[in-house]
Specification:
The chain has 8 helices and 26 strands. The N terminus is likely disordered. The chain is globular and about 65 Å long. 17% of the residues lie in helices and 26% in strands. This is GH64 domain-containing protein. InterPro entries: Glyco_hydro_64, Glyco_hydro_64_fam, Glyco_hydro_64_N_2, Osmotin/thaumatin-like_sf.
């Protein structure tokens, strides 16, 4: 499952892509004694527009702002937002998405849909209309009806005000969302996070993921019309602090700067944890050579013996072997060059980039090989058969993705991706995604601050 939205492919245009700015690079940001990076929020001129933080909308009417009621006869989805913090926190929520015509909207406190409108072409402006939903005290749900159609939706939660911006890049009004990689984003010191969702044709899909970052703790429960439920429990309370403590310990163990994945506020308290892939965007040199020795050892091993990949498709099991400088697999139209650290962190570049013309075998082999690198199972006993080793073997040797290892250690129910192909597991394993979905949904309850209650507890 991928978290990056490729704007150009959605629009079928290059003008917007050319106008997008790349993710910012660090500008000598301060650090805490533990090695956490300090956020340095700035003004509007530091707001970045990238493929990752732009919700692209289609053209809207020329009115400065459009407020509309929902269609009177259309079924809506009831969402319950629950403040699960032990301490007294004023939690804000923001709900955004695309409507059936592709226009960007927010849900206002009075239940109407707010359609942001930019003031001038290609000029960023802050959304000033009231789009903030305030949650009540602990365990007092705020009920919000969503419209009958929402695509590319997000339900944001934050412990302080979040600022959103609107811009028209020539294709329509689009929302600039908070950025996790821009340490000068106006929201950089805020503890925030979101649930992704889409609701179309009475079918709901909602997801909690840690592929890009870990932020404010979220969990959710979907209730169907027959009373059955689906739950993604999320992370334990205060997970960001605990993850950052473990990353600081890992830094002491292997002398790699894992602690710099953590972003802290002015008080030095961590507010989010970046994935290694996102940290690479900020500082490509940080883990530049981290995987080099491991990759060379893998190439040496599979020059002398076969690597068998269970595609878990009709293609069955295929054999791969290194020849020259490439790993070649039966039924694949092209080989795999040695991956770089960037390729392994993201699983979508270099040899792990999947092209439209690739054979089904190649498309099936990519996620299984990349997952084996991320989890460092290729050199273990039995690692020549992928995926065959159980979760106890994942991240058991270094180098490995310690971010994924540590994040999974704080998941209440083991659900929620920590890298793009976290669903790759031996046959028979349970779903590891953080998804709940149904075409018979009654309501969705999202919990912020701590996991949902277990059986026998009150909501």
């Amino acid at each position: 499952m991928r978290s990056v939205t490729f704007v150009a492919s959605l629009l079928g245009a290059t003008s917007l892509t050319a106008a997008l700015r790349v993710a910012p690079r660090p500008n000598n940001h301060g650090t805490t004694p533990e090695g956490f990076l300090k956020a340095d929020p700035a003004s509007l001129d530091k707001v970045e527009i990238t493929q990752k933080n732009l919700l692209v909308g289609r053209s809207t009417s020329p009115r400065s702002q459009v407020l509309t009621d929902r269609a009177p006869n259309s079924p809506s989805l009831m969402v319950k937002l629950v403040n699960n913090f032990d301490r007294k926190n004023t939690i804000r929520s923001y709900i955004s998405g695309l409507d059936a015509t592709g226009k960007v909207f927010f849900v206002s406190p009075d239940g109407k849909l707010v359609y942001p409108k930019s003031k001038d072409p290609r000029v960023r402006s802050e959304i000033m209309e009231d789009i903030t939903l305030f949650l009540g005290p602990r365990n007092q749900p705020l009920e919000v009806p969503l419209p009958s159609f929402i695509r590319s939706g997000r339900i944001y939660f934050a412990d302080s005000d979040l600022r959103f911006f609107v811009v028209n890049m020539g294709e329509g009004d689009s929302v600039i969302q908070p950025s996790v990689t821009n340490l000068q984003d106006p929201n950089a010191q805020v503890n925030w996070g979101f649930v992704e969702l889409s609701y179309m044709d009475d079918s709901l899909y909602a997801n909690i993921s840690y592929v890009d970052f870990v932020g404010i703790v979220l969990g959710m429960m979907l209730t169907e019309k027959d009373g059955s439920t689906q739950t993604t429990a999320g992370l334990v309370a205060d997970a960001v602090t605990k993850i950052c403590d473990d990353l600081a310990k890992q830094k002491e163990t292997d002398k790699r700067d894992w602690a710099s994945l953590c972003i802290a506020n002015a008080d030095g308290k961590p507010v989010r944890v970046l994935s290694p892939g996102n940290k690479h965007d900020l500082d490509p040199k940080l883990f530049d050579t981290y995987w080099d020795t491991y990759v060379n050892e893998v190439w040496n091993r599979y020059t002398a013996q076969d690597l068998t990949i269970n595609t878990q498709t009709s293609a069955g099991r295929v054999k791969c072997r290194v020849s020259g400088d490439q790993l070649l697999c039966e039924g694949s139209d092209r080989g795999f060059a040695k991956p770089t650290g960037k390729d392994i962190w993201g699983c979508n570049s270099g040899p792990f980039a999947i092209s439209e013309g690739d054979t089904p075998v190649h498309a099936a082999v990519v996620p299984r090989i990349c997952a084996a690198f991320v989890r460092s199972t290729l050199l273990l006993d039995g690692g020549n058969d992928q995926p065959s080793l159980g979760q106890s073997s994942y991240y058991s040797v270094s180098p490995t993705n310690h971010y994924s290892r540590i994040v999974h250690s704080y998941e209440v129910d083991g659900r929620g991706y920590a890298f793009p192909y976290d669903d790759v597991n031996p046959d028979g394993n349970e779903d590891a995604s953080g998804v709940v979905s149904s075409d018979n949904v009654q309501s969705l309850t999202v919990y912020v601050g701590a996991p949902p209650p277990t059986r026998g507890q009150d909501d």
